[in-house]
Amino acid sequence: MSASERVVPESARRRRRPTKQGTVLSEQLIIETALRLIGEHGAAALTVRRLGAALGCDPSAAYRYFRDTDELLLAVADELIGHTLRDWRATGEWRADLRDIGLRMHANYLAHPQAAMLTCARVTGRTHEIQAVETILGLLRGAGFPDGEAARVYHVFVDLTLSFAALDASALVLSERARALEVQAWQETYARLPAAEHPNIAAIAPVLVAEMDRSGYAAALEMVLASAAGRLQHVKSGH
Does 137 share its domain with 32? Predict the structure, then answer.
């Protein structure tokens, strides 16, 4: 897509005639279609040719909604954030609420692993992301974190979640053979290392193999939340 193309308001750019597939184009339809195509083809999906074919329209129609494919990718990233917050409700307990947001966000990205790998490092500056930042900071400030501490905990919380989402998503998109080799390495290599040469690995091999078979995100999140709670108690005690 050309960055020189002018993006006009939704009301002005709405297609008046249905596409060949009988649908009416909209920004939301293009985003949802792009998300589906990324799931099927990865980064290669983000071409106007593929979008046009999937939407049943001339590829140039997308120019009226997004300046280029990077802007579309940011819209896809923001859509994923929106999925996370759609059914979330605050309980009034900051630690439980942050845990719920984190677990929802991580699970939602893993439901779209190809998109997660493309979007986890991006800042969208769009509606859903702004809502998420406002919500998380509100939980922290409402709990009593001073502004500097709230910003720091927010930073760690979000980076932890997105980092694990990208890491775990990269494992999900491996080929079946590659995933099998990963499992085999833990079960047939690490689990059988001699204690004389590798005493620490041998001592906890069964536990280690089981632990490495699942994501470490939930445990890491608990560590961060516990640390944040300890810091909040320290601040409230006046030390």
Answer: no
- What's the DSSP call for residue 174? S
List pLDDT tens digits, range 134-190. Answer: 999 999 999 999 999 999 999 999 999 999 999 999 999 999 999 999 999 999 999
Structural domain that includes position 55: 10-67
Predicted model pTM: 0.85
Total number of domains in the chain: 2
Q: Which of 120, 151, 146, 152 is nearest to 134 (CA)?
A: 151
DSSP 48-103: HHHHHHHHTS-GGGGGGT-SSHHHHHHHHHHHHHHHHHHT----S-HHHHHHHHHH
Burial category of 196 from C-beta neighbours within 10 Å (exposed 0-12, middle 13-18, buried 19 and up): exposed
> If the chain, 239 residues long, is cut into consecutive pieces of 10 residues, what is the mean pLDDT of each piece?
45 52 81 94 87 86 87 95 94 97 97 96 96 98 97 98 97 94 94 97 96 95 98 86
The Cα–Cα gap between 97 and 139 comes to 8
Contacts of 170 (CB under 8 A, 6+ apart): 113, 117
Q: How far is Cα 103 from Cα 84, in angstroms, rounded to an integer?
A: 9
CA angle 86, 112, 89 (to 5 degrees): 20
CATH classification at residue 18: 1.10.10.60
Q: Could you tell me the CATH number of the domain that includes residue 100?
A: 1.10.357.10
Same domain flag for 123 and 161: yes
Which 3 state secondary structure label does DSSP give 211?
helix
